[in-house]
Amino acid sequence: MQTRIPFNKLKDAFVAALLRAELPQERAELCGRLFAENQRDGVYSHGLNRFPGLLAKLREGRLDGAAEP
Q1: Catalytic positions, please?
Q2: What is the dotted CATH code of the domain comprising 7-57?
Q3: pTM for this structure?
Q4: pLDDT digits (tens, 9 = 90+) for 1-52
Q5: Are 11 and 33 in contact (CB under 8 A)?
Q6: Residues 31 and 38 sit within 8 Å (Cβ to Cβ)
């Protein structure tokens, strides 16, 4: 059985988690929206499936959430 989560609820959950991981507000909103859009659009490899790994890398310091390209 599949569970459907409304887009905005999923996006808001991603953003909240990213803010707790100390990403700047603007970056958290952008990343949260992109992860939610990927999940909605069926790009599962870059949606919910990838999100726990992103949070782990941020916690471990292996990823700098405030870095600019």
Answers
A1: 46
A2: 1.10.1530
A3: 0.91
A4: 888 899 999 999 999 999 999 999 999 999 999 999 999 999 999 999 999 9
A5: yes
A6: no
Tokens of 3: 């569970």
What is residue 2's predicted lDDT score, i.e. its pLDDT? 82
3-state secondary structure the chain: CCCCCCHHHHHHHHHHHHHHCCCCHHHHHHHHHHHHHHHHCCCHHHCCCCHHHHHHHHHHCCCCCCCCC
Inter-residue contact 64 to 24 (CB < 8 Å): no
Q: Which amino acid is at 53?
A: G
